[in-house]
Design a protein that fits this description.
Elements: E1 5-10, E2 13-19, H1 20-28, E3 37-40, E4 47-48, H2 87-127, H3 132-171
Antiparallel strand pairs: 1-2, 1-3, 3-4
Helix pairs in contact: 2-3
Length: 172
C-alpha cells in the first residue's frame, strides 16, 4: 500500500506532497503550526493541523498515528488532487481572537465609563442634598454603578482567560 502523501498550507501558500513522517517532523520543530491547513487524498476539504490526531500531542505514543486522522470523511472524487485552501478557513481562529479582543476592550472601556458616570452622579446627588434619605439614595445609585462595573470587569476577565487558554492550546 502506498504511503499517504500530505499537503499543507500556510499564508495562502501550498506545500507538499510530503510523507506523514515529514509532516510530524515539521510539527515537532515548529515549522508547522496548529493553525496551518492540511489535506490528503480522500479528504473532502482542507482542515487545520490541530485536528490531526497525533501531530501535536503524544497520541502517537498511544498507537494513534497520522494514518488515523479524525478530520474529515472520505472525498467522493479522490482523483482531483488538492484544491487550493480557502483563506477564510485559516482566518477563522484569527477572526475569533480579534472579535474576543475587541469585545474585551469595549467591555473595559464601558467599565471605566460606568465608574466615572457613577462618581459624577453620586457627587452631584450627594452634594445637592441636605436630607439623609436623599444622601442614602445617592449612595444606592453609586453602589449600583459599581456593581455594574464589577460585572463588566468579571466578563472582561473571563474573556482574558479564554484568550489565554486559546493561545496556550495553539502554542503546544
Amino acid at each position: 500500500m502506498p504511503e499517504v502523501q500530505w499537503y499543507y498550507a500556510r499564508n495562502d501558500q501550498q506545500f507538499g506532497p510530503i510523507s506523514a513522517a515529514e509532516l510530524k517532523q515539521l510539527a515537532d520543530v515548529g515549522k508547522l503550526s496548529p493553525d496551518d491547513l492540511l489535506w490528503r487524498e480522500g479528504m473532502d476539504a482542507w482542515n487545520t493541523a490541530i485536528n490531526l490526531r497525533g501531530l501535536f500531542s503524544d497520541d502517537t505514543a498511544q498507537g494513534k498515528g497520522l494514518a488515523d486522522p479524525i478530520i474529515a470523511p472520505p472525498r467522493t472524487d479522490a482523483q482531483r488532487g488538492p484544491a487550493r485552501p480557502q483563506s477564510g478557513a485559516a482566518q477563522a481562529p484569527v477572526a475569533l481572537r480579534s472579535l474576543l479582543r475587541t469585545t474585551q476592550i469595549i467591555l473595559w472601556t464601558i467599565c471605566v465609563l460606568v465608574v466615572l458616570a457613577g462618581v459624577i452622579l453620586f457627587t452631584r446627588a450627594f452634594l445637592g442634598t441636605k436630607d439623609p434619605s436623599e444622601q442614602a439614595a445617592a449612595g444606592a445609585i453609586f453602589s449600583t454603578f459599581f456593581i455594574a462595573a464589577y460585572v463588566l470587569a468579571r466578563t472582561g476577565e473571563k474573556l482574558s482567560r479564554l484568550l489565554l487558554a486559546g493561545s496556550r492550546r495553539r502554542s503546544r
